[in-house]
């Protein structure tokens, strides 16, 4: 039976308890939660998280899941946005033991089936679904099916930097030079070797990043029908 | 459901009666959310077709659609990801005008909106008729930006914005409802923001 058969299409609100909380990079908070009545998920899916004030005011946001389906806890990595009503609460107020309203998994498009040769071209906190996919690939004993090119500002500011490298991802930094590479965005020459044989490309990051990533993939000859996008952030 | 320890409201209420449940005012921002690569579509080659269960399947080019009687929607829009944007103005042509030319057959009860990318979203015919839906190319007096669906998108402001298909190219009239892209991928079949019809199961 594949995960396609067991990941639910309809979901209901439930609750999750924070089991661990870390601030792994200056701008992110990582939560690991025990979710009541948790349903199975495909890598790339997201969960909703809803906060409720004493006057019954609620705020809900959607976050990609970093953990794979075999993990007993659900892991979320949330970018702390200046003035972000939900993200600042999670980073500054929430504590281990707190109970949050949760709903998921949601989304059946930006998901990987752990069978199709695929590439993740991801930037910033957009690395999160690539982490779920790489963990699923490792768990399935098929890490060769997934290639990852991740883009961050510097090693310190790139979520899951160590884990990405251990997986064999190409990690490039826009504002940090390494011994082998100057600071800057990834080039077509860096991307092209990762595309051989892939059937799908997952792009995740800010709107600006997604625009650059799509252009780079098409420059390398990928057809738009092979590209799936998850972007976040605002334009003017 | 439990109150979240330590959480208090930080955003203002928004204009009276204009913010659907669970939504916040995104102010001057306009988040971009798409599932696919953003296409580059030239007005020179763009066209829109109304077909399916109609007596006169009809297509309009960019120049032809601009010859039709225009109208402007001024009001609010609501995205399922919980932002709302107030007092936007889109100009284009009412879907009523396109349907009048194509003449839906009596059995037509649903519409599938198709984008040139392959994206689809389904709507009851009653949600796009009676002055409730537009095909628009102008936002705030300027050409609609590519990332927001330019050159031309569908606008169905009383439903969550995934129903307002970007890069619209075809309205297909159908007798029976069929789920479109997001509706197959976990979202609600209709998407009324005031009823919080966000996901399957709502």
Describe the structure.
Chain B: It comes from Nocardioides oleivorans. Chain B: This is Sulfite oxidase-like oxidoreductase. Chain B: Residues 1-29 are annotated as: Disordered. Chain B: Pfam families: Oxidored_molyb. Chain B: Residues 37-182 form the Oxidoreductase molybdopterin-binding domain. The complex is a heterodimer of chains A (236) and B (202). With 236 residues, chain A is α/β, with parallel strands linked by helices. Chain A has six helices and twelve strands. Chain A has helices at 3-6, 85-92, 128-139, 161-167, 188-191, 207-219; strands spanning 13-22, 28-35, 46-52, 58-64, 74-79, 99-106, 118-123, 146-152, 170-173, 200-206, 227-232, 234-235. In chain A, the strands form two sheets. In chain A, strands 4-3-6-1-2-5 form a six-stranded antiparallel sheet, with helices on one face. Chain A starts with a helix and ends with a strand. Chain B is mainly beta and 202 residues long. Chain B has a domain at 47-185: Oxidoreductase, molybdopterin-binding domain (Sulfite Oxidase, Chain A, domain 2, Alpha-Beta Complex), CATH 3.90.420. Chain B is 9% helix and 31% strand. Chain B contains three helices and twelve strands. Chain B has helices at residues 62-67, 95-102, 181-184, and strands spanning 24-25, 30-31, 47-52, 58-61, 71-78, 83-94, 110-115, 120-124, 134-139, 142-143, 153-155, 168-174. In chain B, strands 1, 5, 6, 9, 10 and 11 form a six-stranded mixed sheet that branches. In chain B, strands 4-3-12-7-8 form a five-stranded mixed sheet. In chain B, a hairpin with a 4-residue loop joins β5 and β6 (83-94). The longest helix of chain B is centred in the middle third of the chain and has 8 residues, at 95-102. Chain B is globular and about 60 Å long. The chains are: A alpha/beta (236), B mainly beta (202). At the A-B interface, β3, β4, β6, α6 and β11 of A face β2 and α3 of B. β12 (234-235) of chain A pairs antiparallel with β2 (30-31) of chain B.
């Amino acid at each position: 039976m594949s995960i396609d058969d067991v990941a639910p299409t309809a979901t209901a609100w439930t609750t999750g308890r924070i089991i661990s909380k870390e601030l792994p990079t200056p701008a992110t908070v990582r939560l690991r939660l025990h979710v009541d009545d948790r349903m199975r998920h495909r890598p790339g899916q997201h969960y909703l998280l809803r906060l409720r004030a004493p006057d019954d005011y609620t705020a809900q946001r959607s976050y990609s899941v970093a953990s794979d389906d075999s993990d007993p806890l659900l892991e979320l990595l949330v970018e702390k946005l200046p003035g972000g009503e939900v993200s600042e609460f999670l980073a500054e107020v929430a504590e281990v033991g707190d109970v949050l309203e949760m709903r998921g998994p949601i989304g059946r498009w930006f998901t990987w089936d752990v069978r199709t040769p695929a590439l993740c071209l991801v930037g910033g906190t957009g690395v999160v679904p690539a982490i779920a996919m790489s963990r699923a690939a490792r768990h399935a004993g098929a890490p060769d099916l997934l290639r990852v090119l991740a883009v961050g500002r510097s090693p310190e500011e790139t979520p899951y930097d160590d884990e990405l490298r251990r997986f064999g991802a190409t990690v490039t930094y826009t504002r940090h030079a390494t011994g082998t590479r100057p600071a800057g965005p990834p080039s077509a020459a860096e991307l092209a070797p990762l595309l051989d044989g892939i059937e799908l490309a997952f792009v995740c990051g800010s709107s600006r990043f997604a625009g650059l990533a799509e252009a780079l993939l098409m420059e390398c000859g990928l057809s738009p029908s092979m590209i799936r996008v998850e972007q976040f952030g605002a334009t003017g | 459901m439990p109150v979240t320890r330590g959480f208090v409201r930080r955003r203002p209420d928004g204009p009276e009666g204009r913010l659907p449940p669970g939504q916040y005012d995104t102010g001057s921002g306009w988040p971009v959310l798409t599932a696919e690569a953003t296409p580059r579509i030239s007005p020179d080659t763009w066209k829109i077709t109304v077909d399916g269960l109609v007596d006169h399947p009809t297509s309009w080019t960019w120049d032809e659609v601009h010859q039709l009687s225009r109208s402007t929607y001024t009001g609010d829009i609501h995205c399922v990801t919980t932002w709302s944007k107030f007092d936007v103005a889109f100009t284009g042509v009412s879907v009523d005008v396109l349907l009048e030319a194509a003449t839906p057959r009596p059995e037509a009860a649903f519409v599938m909106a198709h984008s040139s990318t392959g994206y689809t979203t389904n709507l009851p015919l009653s949600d796009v008729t009676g002055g409730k839906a537009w095909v628009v190319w102008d936002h705030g007096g300027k050409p609609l930006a590519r990332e927001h669906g330019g050159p031309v998108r569908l606008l169905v402001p009383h439903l969550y914005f995934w129903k307002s298909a970007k890069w619209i190219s075809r309205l297909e009239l159908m007798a029976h409802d069929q789920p479109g892209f997001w509706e197959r991928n976990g979202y609600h079949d209709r998407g009324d923001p005031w009823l919080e019809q966000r996901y399957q199961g709502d």
